Amino acid sequence: MTSFTREHVRIPAGADTELDCWLYLPSTPGPHPAVVMAHGIGGVKAAGLAPFAEVFADNGFAVLVFDYRHWGRSGGTPRELLSIRRQREDYRTALSWARHHESIDNDRLFIWGTSFAGMHILDVAANDPGLAGAIAQCPLVDGPAGMAKVPPARALRLTATAVADLFAGIAGKPPRYLPVSVGPGSHGVIATNDALDGLDRLTPADGEPWPNRITARSLLDIAVHRPVLAAGRIRCPLLMVVAETDSMAPTGPAARAASRAPRGELYRSRGGHYDVYAGGLDHTDVLRVEVEFLSRHAGDRERAGHAAEA
Predict the structure, then answer these.
(1) What is the pTM of this model?
(2) Rounded distance, CA 140 to CA 146, Å?
(3) CA triple 7-87-133, angle to 5 deg
(4) Rounded distance between C-alpha atoms, residue 152 and residue 156, angstroms
(5) Distance from C-alpha of 155 to C-alpha of 164, rounded to nearest angstrom
(6) Closest CA to 273 of 248, 240, 239
(7) CATH: 3.40.50.1820, 3.10.105.10, 3.90.76.10, 1.10.10.10. Which one for 4-142+226-309?
(8) Alpha-carbon gap, residue 38 to 56, rounded angstroms
(9) Average pLDDT over the chain, rounded to whole?
């Protein structure tokens, strides 16, 4: 195993703000293959991403973990706004920064996303031919399918709150917020049986800001996006880690994405949506599968580069 360091970096994003990031660098000589990582809906980098980044770095990968704009320690107002367009831009901003870092091999650059970030992973991978690979775990890849899992009465109430918040924003009023993870029957975005278990498992222990809320208008951005339809255009290797009993992200579209991608791979993880994280039923095996995928395809790209030079 390789030792590593972690430093705090800020990356300019948009017109007037920055992404707050952790950069992990192995102690061995570079340039290193690298992974660019971000969280899912309402998530921040301190909410359970470090265990993945540390293992990747321990296996020789540089890792750039970032908070989206409006979230965590990144800039942007209003706070806790989810914009699919901006979050995909943030991935591309982080990738561009990584490609220009002297310790990173830009021919061996991977993207990684969990849960809602599956919406971004498929889109970015389909439109970036330079990637060495992509990983999406317990991923949401079809907005309408995800919304269909919400009971109709609760969906109507959430939609009414979202529309009211949209008009409040147009009128210049403060945002209306919804809690992200709540117990079954409560008014919030995720009200599954394991939502509070997931919240407990991912809550940062180091004081990082994570208020478990989202601007209600953000929900209107979800239902119209279907990146699963872009899977056939993904030319890089794609690993889909799909939980057997996922109560949040529909597993059918995620499995179809793996089959439609020309170089798609599928791993069926044990347990539910939150069992891929530290403390979960399948965390250790998920890490093993992801490290094997990264190492195999980083080696493929390195060998291809040497062959081209010969």
Answers:
(1) 0.95
(2) 7
(3) 70
(4) 6
(5) 14
(6) 248
(7) 3.40.50.1820
(8) 14
(9) 94
